[in-house]
Amino acid sequence: MSMPTGEQPFTATLAEMRAMRDEFQRFLLEYRFGLQEVETKITILRDEFQLMHDYNPIEHVSSRVKTPDSLAEKVARRGIEPDFPTIRQHITDIAGIRVTCSFVADAYRLFDLLTTQDDITVRAVKDYIAVPKDNGYKSLHAIVEVPVFLSSGRVDVPVEVQFRTIAMDFWASLEHKIYYKYDKQVPSPLLDSLRDAAETAAELDERMERLHREVHGREVHGREVHGRYPRPGETPVEV
Ligand code: 0O2
Prior knowledge:
Elements: H1 14-53, E1 58-65, H2 68-78, H3 84-90, E2 95-101, H4 104-115, E3 121-127, E4 140-150, E5 153-165, H5 166-181, H6 188-216
Parallel strand pairs: 2-5
Antiparallel strand pairs: 1-2, 3-4, 4-5
Bound molecules: ligand 0O2.
Ligand 0O2 binds at residues 66, 70, 93, 96, 126, 133, 135, 137, 141, 172, 175-176.
C-alpha cells in the first residue's frame, strides 16, 4: 500500500482508509520503539555520569517521530516512491533524538559512548560541528540502528541522533523559525546576520568551555583518559 503524497489523485473507501491508517500507525510504531531504546541509552549514560563522575554532560534531551505531513513532504522532496519499504530504506530520520550538551567536548564524548555500544550500528555520520553548513548550522548527526524485539521478531530501527551545544541549539531553533517565517526565502542580509550569529555562538561555546576547564582543571578523578572519557571496560589513567 502506498502513502498519499498530496501530488497524486487519491480515492479510497472508508475501509481502505482505515486499513491505510492502521498500516501507517504500525509503520511508525517501530520508530517509536527505536526511539525509546536510544532514549534509555542516553538516560543511562546521563545518570551514570552524574553518579560516578558527579557531572552531567547533558542539558536536555528531546525526541520526536516525524509527523505524517513532514514525512510526506520529505518523500515528495526526495522524489522516492511513496511505499513503506522505499520510505524505510531512504528516510532515516523518521525517529529523531536531540541531545543538547553543555560543551562541544561533551557532544563528542556522548557520541563516542553511544556509537561504540555493542548493539548499535552506525549507518552514517555527518559532523556539522567540524564542517558547519554554509548557513552556519552546527551539530553532530549520527544515523544509528538499534535492535527492537517485537512479537514478530527483531527489527533494526534507524534513529537519527543529533548532538549539539546549548548555543548551537539556540541558533538552530531561531534559524528554523526564520526559515519558515520567510517560507524558505530568507532575505540575504538576514542570512548574513545568521551566519554572523553562528560565529558568535561558536565563540561563546569556546569561551564557556575554557572557563569551565579553568574552574575545574583537567578532570582526572577517574573521569578523563587522555582528553576523553573512559570507554566501557577501560581503566581511567591519570595524565
Ligand atoms: P525536523 O523538524 O527535525 O524533522 P534533508 O536536508 O533533510 O533532505 P538529511 O540528510 O536528512 O537531508 O538532512 P541532515 O543534514 O542530516 O539534517 C536533518 C535534520 O537536521 C533536519 O531535520 C533538522 O532537524 C536538522 N538540520 C539540518 N540542517 C539544518 C539547518 O540548516 N538548520 C536547522 N535549524 N536545522 C537543520 P528536518 O527533517 O529538516 O526537520
